[in-house]
Design brief:
The complex is a heterodimer of chains A (350) and B (619). Chain A is an alpha/beta fold and 350 residues long. Chain A has helices at 37-51, 67-70, 89-99, 111-115, 119-127, 172-179, 192-204, 230-236, 286-298, 316-320, 332-335, 339-348; strands at 59-63, 80-83, 104-110, 132-138, 141-142, 148-149, 183-188, 208-214, 237-239, 242-246, 261-265, 271-275, 302-309. Chain A has one domain (22-320): Rossmann fold (3-Layer(aba) Sandwich), CATH 3.40.50. Chain A is 30% helix and 19% strand. In chain A, the strands form 3 sheets. Chain A has an 8-stranded mixed sheet, with helices on both faces. Chain A has a 3-stranded antiparallel sheet with strand order 10-12-11. Chain B folds into 4 domains: 6-198, Pyruvate-ferredoxin oxidoreductase, PFOR, domain III (Pyruvate-ferredoxin Oxidoreductase, domain 3, 3-Layer(aba) Sandwich); 211-393, 3-Layer(aba) Sandwich (Rossmann fold), CATH 3.40.50; 409-472, no CATH class; 490-613, 3-Layer(aba) Sandwich (Rossmann fold). The longest helix of chain B has 21 residues, at 170-190. Chain B is globular and about 90 Å long. The chains are: A alpha/beta (350), B alpha/beta (619). At the A-B interface, strand 1, strand 2, helix 3, helix 5 and helix 10 of A face strand 9, helix 7, helix 9, helix 10 and strand 19 of B. Strand 2 (80-83) of chain A pairs parallel with strand 19 (449-451) of chain B, so a sheet runs across the interface. Bound molecules: thiamine diphosphate, iron/sulfur cluster and magnesium ion (MG). Iron/sulfur cluster is lined by residues 32-33, 36, 38, 67, 139, 143-144, 217-220 of chain A.
Chain lengths: 350, 619
Amino acid sequence: MSYVRPTFRHPDSQKNKLGYSRKAYEGAISTLCAGCGHDSIVSSIITAFFEMSIEPHKVVKLSGIGCSSKTPAYFLGRSHGFNSVHGRMPSVATGANMANKDLVYLGVSGDGDTASIGMGQFAHVVRRNLNMIYVVMNNGCYGLTKGQDSATADKGSKSRKGAPVSFESIDLCELAILMGADFVGRGFSGDKKQLLPMLKAAISHKGMAFVDVISPCVTFNNAPTSTKSYSWVRDHMEATSTFDFIPMQQEILTEYDHGSSIPVPLHDGSIITLHKREDKEVITNKKDAIASLEEAKVKDHILTGILYLKPDSEDFHDINQTTDTPLSQLTEKELCPGNEVLQAFNESLR
Amino acid sequence: MKRIERTNDFVVRFANVNGSGSASANNLFAKVVYRLGVPVSPKNVFPSNIQGLPTWYEVRISDKGYLGRRGGADFIIAVNGQTLRDDYDMVQPGGYFLYDSTRDLPPGFDRDDITVIDIPLTQLCNDEFSDNRMRQLMKNIIYIGAIAYLLDIGLEPVSDSITKQFAKKPKLAEPNIRALEIGYQYAEKNHSDACGLSIEPSTAVGDRILIDGNSGAALGALFAGATVVGWYPITPSTSVVEAFERFASRYRIDPETGKKNYAAIQAEDELAAIGIGIGAGWNGARAFTATSGPGISLMSEFLGLAYFTEIPVVLINVQRSGPSTGMPTRTQQSDLLACAYASHGDTRNVLLFPSDPLECFEMTADAFDLADRLQTPVIVMSDLDLGMNDHLCAPFSWDDQRRYDRGKVLSGEELDKIEKKWGRYLDIDKDGICYRTLPGAHPEKGAYTTRGTSHNEYAAYTEGSAAYERSMNRLMIKWETARRLVPMPEIDIRDKNKKLGALYFGSTAASAVEALDRLEESGIPISSMRVRAFPFQPEIFDFIAGHELVFVIEQNRDSQMEILLAGECQVAPGKMVRVTNFNGLAITARMITNQVHTALLAKEKPFISQISAVQKETS
Ligand SMILES: Cc1ncc(C[n+]2csc(CCOP(=O)(O)OP(=O)(O)O)c2C)c(N)n1
Ligand code: SF4
Ligand SMILES: [Mg+2]
């Protein structure tokens, strides 16, 4: 258990627009190791949904298998959750989303769950541009099976048993960009200031919003030499253009210099304001986005922030031209052609 | 030589090269026979290849309505040089062999017990048509013209069918009709009276339709309200989804917006295909996927998840010859064990066994009600022969009063009315089926996490042995409920003395009925039971217990149905006798009667203890 939740809450404790307190967005008590990065991400997820005043029951949580995939139990207790099988969250999310396009789909996965066993499903759910938020809690190892290297562990880095990782590491953000995700971000579990607005922007984005969050495994992968450890990430983190997220309800405040900030409207009317760094202009250009990731790697840096964004994207249902009513709510009336059609069909065969 | 002289009762076999356009010509022939009111059963024997390998199209014509494979061929149309010798040798004594005499028959083709009919198909075709593509296609129509003469069909029934086929593009009908006439006239001029086989108009077909099982299954899914499909291409199941999409693009378009009342995704593999079905079923839509053996293997982990977490999903398994890639374009009923217990741990799945396209339609539609009612995967066990070949069956119909049974799903209002604490896995009704809720139903009630890990009645994670045992035992209560809901077996009592019984299922039915008729005619009445579902009902146990010897007829090597029955029912050793065929072609009545005779003989000579399951085509 990583933290003890205070049971006493001040009566004036903050309520959101729906009149819910943050508690309405919490889940069961975590059973992860104390200090596990995953728990910090959970806390940001709770805050994001709470502050955005999203009705908890309109959110669907899905995950695969792993310590990371257990976390949906620890947030949004009033949402339905589906802890599926190892590496297959994307297909279950696809089916769920196909059935009811009106809910918010949040998928949670691990680096083993996504970059190894689930690589195929990850690539294809991104390619379909399913309207969902896909969070990878990336610790560079298999936590739940006790610390084996994962495919995101950096080549050459020392693993739990001391031997350097011999194979190339997979950069999930680069892959997501290549596979066609229109929202790709990378955060660090220990940096809530950046992670929170990034999650909010991901929630507001229509289509696939992929967020890779470096999340140290304190039990199996937190040696200072590991590129997924707290200390290494803190020392080597480089933020790409910083940004603010302004939910649609708020007025856009232009307190930044024009020229150095770009407002990017999202489909629900929210705005992300990107503060450009002088030397870089990534974000909305795929090629540059990948180049800056690679450049950072050469410098031994981990680039964080919103790495790529194309706000006006078409999600699966746009492409499929699915009807407006969720498919799960259609009835015999819309679905069954009736006996007359069947009799005509019989006749056409004669 | 004694020619075979028969009316409305013989087998015609076309030997072609695949990719040459012969399929539609041969199909035209079957359709014409059907439209003349004569029961017909065409079977396509095709390779796993797109162009250039041998294919056969075997058409059984039977006024009596026997529509299984008979075995052997009375008339062979040989237009594939590669298989000429085999085709020639296969003609039944007294039968007929039509070949393309543009090239002479090689030396050694000297049977004196058959009638050889030479028609220079290529020559006739090239004289008339100049375009290469046209030449290839029209050659097929020329031989159809020839047999229209030889079998006394006449020109008109065939040209009517062509006109009907090209009703929307009459220009295309012209060359076809021309080719038809060329073949007809050539045969009339050069081979008058050469053939003793004849087709006469009949009323035997009645109102029956001729259709493939996969189209039936697709229509079943359409009428039952399936809206979500995830699939991955694999012969012989692909045409289920293709047909579904074809029907849906007509009947599932919102009239006002033009948008789709369905969503189908060709997934990245079968794992994703079933994952999509499960995600959608969990979220309240009716969903299905269709696959064959290799896909079943890939779906196994997910099937266990759906069984244990209790999620409805429909899976149509169009079986083919395994193991592994096996003979991917040949038929078998060999996934019984793989499907009945698909997945690790103690998993059991509901299976339905359709025997003709009508049952493909009805059982697929029912599968959605069963899956929703039982909150579990339901697998429709079709096969390549049933799914991809046309079969004669009663016309489809739908009761417009029928309402979908969506099972125990609590709405938001219902959640508000419940006084006690709701639990996803609480067995309130004591039928093993619990009440589920859908995401978004209620702002504060009814949410839970579905998980493949062990869970208690309130869906909370637990590793407590007692809770685990309770949930596994409750799933068996549900299984007992399923036993009472699945379709009943069909029983036919022929042996009043209750000595001999036969049990079969699925597409084996057509040949089994014919075999049992023959056996009865020869003084061996055998009562029969057609099993239509798993779990097995008590009637099945009683049938087996009530007969001295029960033949279990099926199309796989290991007698999987017999193994399943032995495991699920109390059966005395030696009571069940295996009758099998696993050569990749549909079982024939002759195979069945031969094995039954052998078994009965062996009973009198106890030293022959085991009947060989290895069956050679006996004709
Ligand atoms: C099919 C299958 N293979 C293997 C496992 C065992 N397994 C459980 S979790 C896991 C790795 C999880 O790693 P990751 O996704 O990185 O999650 P983490 O625990 O690191 O958060 C494995 C291999 C499994 N559950 N299912
Ligand atoms: S093993 Fe690692 S990933 Fe798993 S809970 Fe512990 S710290 Fe977190
Ligand atoms: Mg991990």
